[in-house]
Each structure stands twice: as structure tokens, then as C-alpha cells.
Design a protein that fits this description.
heterodimer; A: 334 residues; alpha+beta; Ubiquitin-like (UB roll); Alpha-Beta Plaits; 3 domains; five-stranded mixed beta sheet; four-stranded antiparallel beta sheet; 14 strands; 20% helix; globular; B: 451 residues; alpha/beta; Rossmann fold; de novo design (two linked rop proteins); four-stranded parallel beta sheet; disordered C terminus; binds flavin mononucleotide; binds iron/sulfur cluster; binds FE2/S2 (inorganic) cluster
């Protein structure tokens, strides 16, 4: 079996896997962060550049280093390839640059953003970004828009990852939205104010890594971290019917698809399950969801990073970063 | 050195050369005749390889090698696409060639297509060149009528259809994979490579994309042999190159030069640019179109080790990024002592910001950020740390993007700061220093009020 070395660890992989896929097959810190890649869709990735890594040797046959960093989600792993991710200061610096680029025009209105708490950009900024911004100009602004009666488009928050475009292209029929304009004024837009209207359109909400596409039926209902996720299913004619219900007390506030370790949808769900089935009686409850506790709030990331790094301090004084109420160790315990 | 060899422009001033009759009487279409009646496709490719011809669109990649890479799976069509999107600021040579001698491009498309086993070829032309579209369409029609295009050309087994496609005015559609997307009727976003067009290009089929000037050089190579072509120019930069000369020179225009001509001679000789206007002092040159690093006078006239700098791929890049530049597409922009490098850089930065397709974060966000900082400096509100910030931003764009537009946006910034940092500092410390360049005062009211 071919073998790739990432951050000093040897990993066997199947021919045809990308560097990222090989890394994920091992898991842990050597896995590069991603914002646009989506394993459940075809042809994603390559856009955001957060997953860049350094290739120190291309292959057994061709042991030369590549002059530029590569997007690990779009570069095939090769036998004898040597890759540096976490262990390369150069990669970390370049990645911090990418995070800064993603944030300079971002509104950072997390306090009023429904995505807060399960937002990939918050996590990324926390783990790979810098503490302050050097950007001093006006951020770009767009009008908020409705895409149909169930989906809100908050273009200011969009990072142009193209996931929603690929989702619509690949799992719904008749894509009616895409990217208009170019450069930093490019925007996700519907063709001539058309509503997205088909059975699977709601999935664009789940694939959106940020709060650009949100569920209008959940809008401002509650903060994600105050709701309790429960896995459930029903017999559905259109989709697999396997979902995650987000409870507040007895009420189902939101229905989403189930997501995996990397925040990717496990199975696409239909709009009926997502938007219309909000009574417990309509579902067979399986039990509490195992949610990735990686996100900003759940990992107690609201601590100052110096404190996060100094774990011993936290162990001695668990109240040090008292906020969202979870234990400071929750991330490590996972 | 054999000076002044004209390969592309030999007949350019012949009255009526845009029509097929005159073009024929000057020896036009002989290469098609020769190739189709007496050469195999492989022999034509071989000639292009030995000619040493390098791509004239910017990157300078060996054309023969590129042709050799073209995948040839059974039962799958192959395509040749001519890149006539010419949008690089400072570059206007393809326009001149297509306007004056359109049949040379068409002849080139036919022999090249024959060499590559292509039966459908395209010329992708930028939207702003609509008048050229009409000239080329007319020439294509003439070529069809005369039997140089269509079925069984010259009674051979060879068929070729040639189509024109007009872009909608985006610089990025000159990038070859964005061009292919656009040609397919999609949004002009560069593709993520690999796969390269040689394997999966237009409609997923093997495709060669070449610049207008590259293709126009092929008829001569086929007719006179690759070795003969290689006898012109230097060892690594064979043949001739069209240079679009602009800026503060006495004779701006498009010149065909034999590669290896000393830069100094090109600027000061009356056969070419004719010196700097008003007897002014030369300040800096952007030698290969807006994307390549700018060089100050002492580095453009001489290499770092004191040799005369030549107009060739290898001589211009001598000194690497620290002290060299690139031949690029041959957009030769000359600036005299009255030029503000800060203003010039702002103009370039604005262009790249405007033209970024927005797919990848460093280019989408970074180009706008750099433009804003430069604008702020021009407004008289810059700080010295802005120079370092600009440097840092460009370094975080370069090499980290999907296509080379990111690099093209980063290099002008890096080189301007590298070679002209004191000018940025002086401007920031005293914005009124711009008054020295009095001709800007009229145009840039903002700078005035800020003072
Ligand atoms: C942003 C960008 C713009 C480009 N614009 C042009 C262009 O207008 N014309 C051109 O011939 N090549 C252009 N190129 C280069 C093409 O991608 C490609 O390398 C070229 O057409 C290949 O032809 P050649 O090998 O004959 O030079 C551009 C490249 C980039 C990255
Ligand atoms: S998308 Fe994420 S980072 Fe942006 S405002 Fe919402 S929660 Fe904050
Ligand atoms: S709306 Fe969301 S999913 Fe779509 S491109 Fe923007 S960030 Fe990505
Ligand atoms: S480098 Fe710029 S132009 Fe090229 S793909 Fe990225 S955003 Fe688009
Ligand atoms: S995840 Fe690889 S480029 Fe975005």
C-alpha cells in the first residue's frame, strides 16, 4: 500500500485519495482545517486555501519539494510524499494569512448571528487566526435577502466557499442560484429573484460553513448552545428521514441533517422533514446526539488563548474561563 | 548579431495584406500547402520543438513541449484554442497583428491544428476587440471560400472548422482555464489544476491553448524549418518577439525585435523607442506587461553583475526576483523621472482588484485591501507601517492562489516596494511631495485636498 508522511506520521492510503483524505483517515492534529471542501459533494474545495500544506517531497519517484504550498483537499497523495502541516511555521503563517483574508470583510456580528456556536469560521479564527485585525477600512455590505420563504441569505457573512452552489447543482434539480459579479463584490444570488424551490433546497443551510444561509423557521429563536440536539428518524417518502432535532424544553426549534466529525452532513434531508415536522409525535427519538464539541462555545474557546494554552492553570482553577458553562476540559475529553 | 529580422511583420505594411489575395501573393498559406502535402503531423510538431518557440502569452513555456504533452486518447476530439483575450495592461501586440494581417493567424491556426490532429479550433477574442472580430470573421470566410478551411483541405483527408468566440470583457478570461470555462458558456472562473488542459480542457477533451503571437509564428517555422527559426535570437530565446512599447518614449508602438537585443538599444535607438520624451531621464521600466516586477533604471539596463541586460527570457530574469523581472507578454512600459511610482502602483493595484474573479480568498480579499491601502497613502493618510503591511499582504497572496492572477497582483507591489521604498516613505512623510510631479495635480484632486 502506498504511504504518505504527514507531520512525521506515516499513513497508508488508497491510490486516488487526496492529502486531506489521507490525513483524515488518521485524524488528530495533523488534519488540515477546511472551509470549502465537502467530502459528500463532488468537485468541492480549492477555493478558501485554509487547507494549504507544504510538500517537502512529492513522491518516491520525484522526491523534490514543491515550490508553493498546495491545497491539500485538491492535491492527490502520492507514495513517498512528505507533507508538513502543523509542523511547518511557514504553513501556519500562511494559514493565519488566509484566516485574516477571510475575516477582513466579515461583519463578525456573532452576537446576532444564528450560526454562532456552530460556525466553522469562528472555530477557524480561534484556532488559526491572530488576535487582532490590521484592516481599517469599511467592510463590504450587501442587502439581506430571502431565498424563498424558508431560507435567509445574509451575504455579508458569506465566504464564497461555493458549497451551496455545488449542493444545489448536485442534489437538487434545476439550480436557480449561483455566483454573480466577481472579486470581492461577488455574491451568491438567485437568478432574477427566483425562490429556491425544490424538495432538497434546505440542505444549502447545512452545508454553509457560516451564517450566510440560515433557516428562517429557526431565525433568532434561540442560541445554538442553549438547545439540545437529539437524533431522530421518521418514515419519509423523499429522504432517509434521519435527522437531528434541536430542542428547547419540549419544543423542537429546528431540524437539521446529522453531521459528522468534520461538520459535514451525513445524509441529505428533504424540506418536509426540515421545515414542516416540528412536533415530537412526528418522530421516533433515538437519543441524545453525539455532537462534535470542537466548536467555539462548546470547547470554551471564549477563553483568552493564553489561558487555553496554559491548561494547568485551568485545571487548578476551573472557573478561570467561566462562561458557556461547559468544562474547560470538554474538548480534550472528547 | 543579425539585426532587425522580421518574421511576423515582414509583409505587414504591404497595402491590402488584410485580404486573402494580397496575402497569398506574399507567400501566404504556403505552410499549409507544405504541411498537408508533404509532412506528417509528427514532423510539424518536431519542427516546432526544434524551433525552440516559447509561448508568447506570458509564461514563456516551450510550445513544442506543450504540444507534445497533448493527450491523444482514441475516439476523443482534441481542440486548439487561440488566446486572443489580450488584456494585460501594457500589452497590445496581438491586436496590431490581427488587425493588420489576420490571415497570418488563420494560417497559423490551420497548420497548428493539423499538427495536433485537431478538427475544431477556436479563436477566443476579448469583447472589446469587437472590430477585430469582424476583421477575423471576414478573413475566415475568405479562407473557407479559398478552400483553406472546411472539408478535405487541398484535397487531403484533413478537415478543419475554425470558430470565433467573443468574451465579455474580463481580464481573467485570458487565463487559459477561465478562458475554457467561458468558451463553454460558463462563468469565467479559472479551474483548479490538475487536470491541465492538455489532458482535460475544452468540454473535458485534450486541448492546447496558445497565444495569438505564438500561433502566428508557426507558419514560418513550418515553411523554413525549426532549425532556421532557432538561428534567430538567443539559445534559450529563439526567434523574434513583438514588443508593445508604451509610456514616456518618443516612439511608442508595436515592434518586432529579434530576441537578445540589448534593452538599452531598444529604448534609445531610433529604430525602436527613440529615447525618452523631452530628453528626460529614464526612471523605471515594467518590461513584460503590468504583472511583472518593475525595475529601476540601473537594473533594467544592466544585470546585477554589470552585463548589458538583453531583451530575452533569460537575461530579463537574471537576478531572480530580487533584481530581475520577466519578458512576460512583452508589454514594455517605460517611465521617466516625472512618474510617481506610488501612483503607478495604485493604478495597477486597482486593476487587479477589479479583475480578481473572487474564487480564492487571498486574491479576492487581498487585492482590494492593497488597493485601499495605496489609496489611503495617496490621500495623504498613510503611515510608514502601511508599507510593511503592503509587503506582508502581497507575500500572503503570492503562491497561495488558484491561478497566477494572485501572483500578478503581488509582484508589482513587491517590486515597487523593493526598489522604490524611499519614494513611498517620502510620500507618506510629506504628501505634498507629489507636487514635484506637477502633471498629477490636475488629475488627482484628492491628493491636493489631503495635503
Ligand atoms: C490572469 C491571467 C491573464 C492572462 N491573460 C492572457 C492573455 O490575455 N493572452 C494570452 O495569450 N495569455 C494570457 N494568459 C496566459 C494564459 O493562461 C496561457 O498561459 C497562454 O495563453 C498560453 O499560451 P502560450 O503558451 O502561447 O503563451 C493569462 C494568464 C493569467 C494568469
Ligand atoms: S458567520 Fe460565524 S463568524 Fe460570522 S458572524 Fe456568524 S457566527 Fe460570527
Ligand atoms: S452562502 Fe454559505 S455555502 Fe454558499 S458560498 Fe456563501 S458561505 Fe459558502
Ligand atoms: S487567484 Fe484571483 S483570479 Fe485567480 S482564481 Fe483566485 S481569485 Fe480568481
Ligand atoms: S478546504 Fe481546501 S481550499 Fe478550502
Amino acid at each position: 500500500m502506498p504511504e504518505i508522511t504527514i507531520d512525521g506520521q506515516k499513513i497508508e492510503f488508497n491510490q486516488g485519495m487526496t492529502i486531506l483524505e489521507a490525513a483524515r483517515s488518521r485524524g488528530g492534529d495533523l488534519v488540515p482545517p477546511t472551509m470549502c471542501y465537502y467530502s459528500k459533494l463532488k468537485d468541492t474545495g480549492g477555493y478558501c486555501r485554509t487547507c494549504i500544506v507544504k510538500v517537502e517531497a512529492e513522491s518516491v519517484k520525484n522526491p523534490r519539494a514543491l515550490p508553493k504550498p498546495v491545497a491539500s483537499c485538491r492535491t492527490l497523495a502520492q507514495d513517498g510524499m512528505v507533507v508538513k502541516n502543523q509542523t511547518s511555521p511557514e504553513v501556519l503563517e500562511a494559514r493565519a494569512g488566509v484566516v485574516e483574508f477571510l475575516l477582513i470583510n466579515h461583519p463578525l456580528d456573532c452576537p446576532v448571528c444564528d450560526q454562532a456556536g456552530e460556525c466553522s469560521l469562528q472555530d477557524l479564527g480561534y484556532e488559526h487566526g491572530k488576535m487582532d485585525t490590521r484592516y481599517e477600512f469599511k467592510r463590504r455590505e450587501f442587502e439581506q435577502r430571502d431565498i424563498g420563504d424558508k431560507i435567509k441569505l445574509h451575504m455579508n457573512r458569506c465566504i464564497l466557499c461555493y458549497r451551496c452552489v455545488k449542493t444545489a447543482e448536485q442534489i437538487t434539480d434545476g439550480r436557480v442560484h449561483g455566483v454573480c459579479s466577481r472579486g470581492d463584490v461577488a455574491e451568491i444570488s438567485t437568478y432574477i429573484e427566483q425562490a429556491i424551490d425544490n424538495d432538497f433546497s434546505g440542505n444549502v443551510i447545512d452545508v454553509c460553513p457560516v451564517g450566510a444561509l440560515t433557516d428562517k423557521t429557526f431565525r433568532f429563536k434561540n442560541r445554538v448552545w442553549f438547545t439540545k440536539p437529539v437524533d431522530a428518524h421518521r418514515d419519509c417518502q423523499k429522504c432517509c428521514g434521519k435527522v437531528r432535532l434541536w430542542y428547547k424544553g419540549e419544543d423542537i426549534l429546528r431540524v437539521t441533517a446529522r453531521k459528522d466529525l468534520y461538520g459535514e452532513v451525513e445524509n441529505w434531508i428533504c424540506n418536509e422533514c426540515r421545515f414542516e415536522k416540528k412536533k415530537t409525535a412526528e418522530w421516533v427519538i433515538e437519543g441524545p446526539s453525539k455532537v462534535d464539541r470542537h466548536s467555539v462555545v462548546s470547547a470554551n474557546h471564549y477563553l483568552a488563548p493564553e489561558m487555553k494554552n496554559d491548561l494547568s492553570k485551568l485545571i487548578l482553577n476551573p472557573d478561570a474561563g467561566n462562561n458557556a458553562g461547559s468544562s474547560p476540559l470538554s474538548k480534550e475529553q472528547e | 548579431m543579425k539585426e532587425g529580422k522580421k518574421i511576423l511583420f515582414e509583409h505587414i505594411d504591404v497595402p491590402g495584406i488584410e485580404g486573402i489575395a494580397t496575402y497569398r501573393s506574399c507567400g501566404g498559406y504556403q505552410s499549409v500547402d507544405k504541411a498537408l502535402t508533404s509532412m506528417t503531423a509528427t514532423e510539424v510538431v518536431h519542427d516546432v520543438i526544434t524551433s525552440g518557440l516559447r509561448g508568447r502569452g506570458g509564461a514563456g513555456f516551450q510550445t513544442g513541449t506543450k504540444w507534445n504533452f497533448l493527450a491523444k486518447p482514441e475516439g476523443v476530439p482534441r481542440y486548439l484554442v487561440c488566446n486572443a483575450d489580450e488584456s494585460e495592461p501594457g500589452t497590445f501586440k496581438d491586436r496590431y497583428l490581427m488587425e493588420k494581417i489576420p490571415h497570418l493567424l488563420i494560417e497559423g491556426m490551420i497548420v497548428s491544428s493539423y499538427a495536433l490532429g485537431v478538427n475544431k479550433a477556436y479563436i477566443y477574442i476579448r469583447g472589446e476587440y469587437f472590430y477585430l472580430y469582424k476583421i477575423l470573421e471576414q478573413a475566415i470566410e475568405e479562407a473557407y471560400k479559398a478552400g483553406w478551411l472546411g472539408q478535405n483541405i487541398l484535397n487531403s483527408q484533413y478537415n478543419l472548422d475554425l470558430y470565433m468566440h467573443i468574451g465579455a470583457g474580463a481580464y481573467i478570461c485570458g487565463e487559459e482555464t477561465a478562458l475554457l470555462e467561458s468558451l463553454e458558456g460558463k462563468r469565467g472562473n479559472p479551474r483548479i489544476k490538475p487536470p491541465f488542459p492538455a489532458v482535460a480542457g475544452l468540454y473535458g477533451c485534450p486541448t492546447v491553448v496558445n497565444n495569438v503571437e505564438t500561433i502566428a509564428a508557426v507558419p514560418y517555422i513550418v515553411q523554413h524549418g525549426g532549425e532556421h527559426y532557432a538561428s534567430f535570437g538567443t539559445e534559450k530565446s529563439t526567434g523574434t518577439k513583438l514588443i508593445s512599447a508604451s509610456g514616456h518614449i518618443n516612439k511608442p508602438g508595436v515592434y518586432e525585435i529579434e530576441l537578445g537585443l540589448p534593452v538599452e538599444e531598444f529604448i534609445y535607438s531610433d529604430s525602436y523607442c527613440g529615447g525618452i520624451r523631452n530628453g528626460n531621464e529614464l526612471k523605471a521600466v515594467v518590461a513584460g506587461g503590468s504583472s511583472v516586477p518593475i525595475l529601476p533604471k540601473h537594473l533594467i539596463l544592466q544585470t546585477p553583475d554589470g552585463q548589458p541586460r538583453l531583451m530575452s527570457y533569460e537575461s530579463l530574469s537574471e537576478g531572480g526576483f530580487a533584481a530581475g523581472t520577466m519578458l512576460g507578454s512583452g508589454g514594455f512600459i517605460v517611465m521617466d523621472e516625472t512618474t510617481s511610482i506610488v501612483m503607478n502602483l495604485h493604478t495597477f493595484a486597482r486593476f487587479y482588484h477589479h479583475e480578481s474573479c473572487g474564487q480564492c480568498s487571498p486574491c479576492r480579499e487581498g487585492t482590494g485591501w492593497m488597493e485601499k491601502i495605496l489609496h489611503k497613502i495617496l490621500d495623504g493618510h498613510g503611515t510608514l507601517s502601511d508599507i510593511d503591511l503592503l509587503w506582508d499582504i502581497q507575500s500572503k497572496i503570492e503562491g497561495k492562489t488558484i491561478c497566477a492572477l494572485g501572483d500578478a497582483a503581488a509582484w508589482p507591489v513587491a517590486s515597487a516596494i523593493r526598489h522604490f521604498r524611499p519614494e513611498f516613505e517620502a510620500y507618506i512623510k510629506d504628501p505634498s511631495a507629489i507636487k514635484k510631479f506637477s502633471h498629477y495635480n490636475e488629475k488627482y484632486k484628492i491628493a491636493e485636498t489631503a495635503i
